[in-house]
Write a structure and sequence with these properties.
The complex is a heterodimer.
Chain A lengths: L3 E3 L3 E4 L5 E3 L1 E3 L5 E8 L3 E10 L2 E4 L6 E7 L2 E6 L8 E9 L4 E4 L3 E5 L1
Parallel strand pairs in A: 2-12
Antiparallel strand pairs in A: 1-4, 3-9, 5-6, 5-10, 6-7, 8-9, 10-11, 10-12
Chain B lengths: L2 E3 L4 E5 L4 E3 L2 E3 L5 E7 L5 E7 L5 E3 L5 E5 L4 E6 L8 E8 L7 E3 L3 E6 L1
Parallel strand pairs in B: 2-12
Antiparallel strand pairs in B: 1-4, 3-9, 5-6, 5-10, 7-8, 8-9, 10-11, 10-12
The chains are: A mainly beta, B mainly beta.
Chain lengths: 112, 114
């Protein structure tokens, strides 16, 4: 069974902290994505990666960075967390052959 | 730029009734279109997808969608809704198959009445 695993379901962090959100996939996919989900705004793309050490900005990259040192792991980094980054974060891995995205269960981050 | 509009924020239907969720897209070339479902507290699951060919596509859980190029629409349908279908539904348009980048609509929340 294919799987995308996000390391935390819920996180509470303080303003100014550096925050790491981890995502691991076991499907050997090259393409991975980080989205942010807010009520009424759907999913917005933060960053994506086509391969190890390759990354591209999405629609809302400000305040975020990413790391892809290994194919299976794609990390989202909040350099200095702010309250407006309180949100649900979804990681996805993309199967190019079947043109299908697989999503993790999400990490609900609260910044206080 | 590509965009997706889901005109209905919230829809309520009775169990056993038919369902149609609307999706309109804007895209310069042939679109790659998707419908996803998100149950409470879960990630998104792909229901169905369209790239080319037959404009009526079948998906999982008894859902289907019809691509209408002239109307720039890709509406999701189900003949008889079950209580377990209560969830949030997202329509998405993809840039191309290799990238997997998709632009999502704002979502439609479906409530099912007993």
């Amino acid at each position: 069974d294919v799987k995308v695993t996000q390391s935390s379901r819920y996180l509470v962090k303080r303003t100014g902290e550096k925050v790491f959100l981890e995502c691991v996939q076991d499907m050997d996919h090259e393409n991975m994505f980080w989205y942010r989900q807010d009520p009424g705004l759907g999913l917005r793309l933060i960053y994506f990666s086509y391969d190890v050490k390759m990354k591209e900005k999405g629609d809302i990259p400000e305040g975020y960075s990413v790391s892809r040192e290994k194919k299976e792991r794609f990390s989202l980094i909040l350099e200095s967390a702010s309250t407006n980054q309180t949100s649900m974060y979804l990681c996805a891995s993309f199967d190019v052959m079947n043109t299908e995205a697989f999503f993790g269960q999400g990490t609900r981050l609260t910044v206080v | 730029a590509q965009s997706v509009t889901q005109p209905d924020i919230h829809i309520t239907v009775s169990e056993g009734a038919s369902l149609e969720l609307r999706c309109n897209y804007s895209y310069g070339a042939t679109p790659y279109l998707f419908w996803y479902v998100q149950s409470p507290g879960q990630g998104l699951q792909l229901l169905l997808k369209y790239f080319s060919g037959d404009t009526l596509v079948q998906g999982i859980k008894g859902f289907e969608a019809e691509f209408k190029r002239s109307q720039s629409s890709f509406n999701l349908r189900k003949p008889s809704v079950h209580w377990s279908d209560a969830a949030e539904y997202f329509c998405a348009v993809g840039a191309n198959t290799n990238a997997g980048k998709s632009t999502f609509g704002d979502g439609t929340t479906l409530t099912v009445k007993p």
